[in-house]
Amino acid sequence: MKGWRLLMAIIFGVTLLAPAAFLCTQAHAASVATPGTGGDVAPAEEPTAKATRVQLGLGAAVVPDYEGSKDYKGAPWLFARVDWPSGMYFLFEGASARMNLVSSPNWRLGPVLRYIPARDHVQNDQVSDLKEVDAAVMLGGFAGYDFGPWSAFVQLVQDVSGSNDGYVGTLGVGYAIPVSKELLVAFSATTNYASGDYMSTYFGIDAADSARSGLKTYNANAGFKDVGAGVLLQYYPWDHWGFRVRAMYTRLVGDAEDSPVVDKVGDANQFLGGLMVTYRF
User: Taking the model in full, what pTM does it have?
Assistant: First the structure.
């Protein structure tokens, strides 16, 4: 198992770092991951470019303190996207990066990297008393299809950092509306299925955790952990400068919703919102 993870990390790491290096060389941009929840939908934001197009963004977001928290905190929000004339693209946003390796007007296929921040020193005292969960690096792949304004995708990522030892599978659909030359509005809906290891790490409570925190012991099993919906507004009132606004709502379900870290001291309703300034060339 460890050998498979190492091989997977090398393959996907090389694939992802190559376009990232190109992006940094061309745009001199720095990439920083930020907290996020749920899955990521990347609808076709513009038709196939006649030349390589680069978009960069920097802003701020409000995110849950941890997955299932009722408390919120501010976080930086970074965005970078490179679209090649072939239809291939590289996308980095928030806490994930992906690369479409298929030269097709409709199909998308490629690697995904997702970062999950550590759960430590959270605002809730009882959750803070639970054993700390280290930051996780999730690697995997995605496949998608665009049909007109609609897009659909599936994604599977596996922990390769040894933090949660689990995997998460995502199903998503998106609908993009080019309201005008300056304004794009895109809607998305996702659901996430998580393995038992993932659920146990973030939502389970063993006897030692219960003794430290006062929360009841809880066994979280594999299953669908959330459903969510989001809206994205991308507005370019000028040739190069614009704005990007994102709002997301995620509802934890199943064993995630019933976990004491959510049901007793948190909230199954999770919100995320962000605003950034963007530049394209």
Answer: 0.83
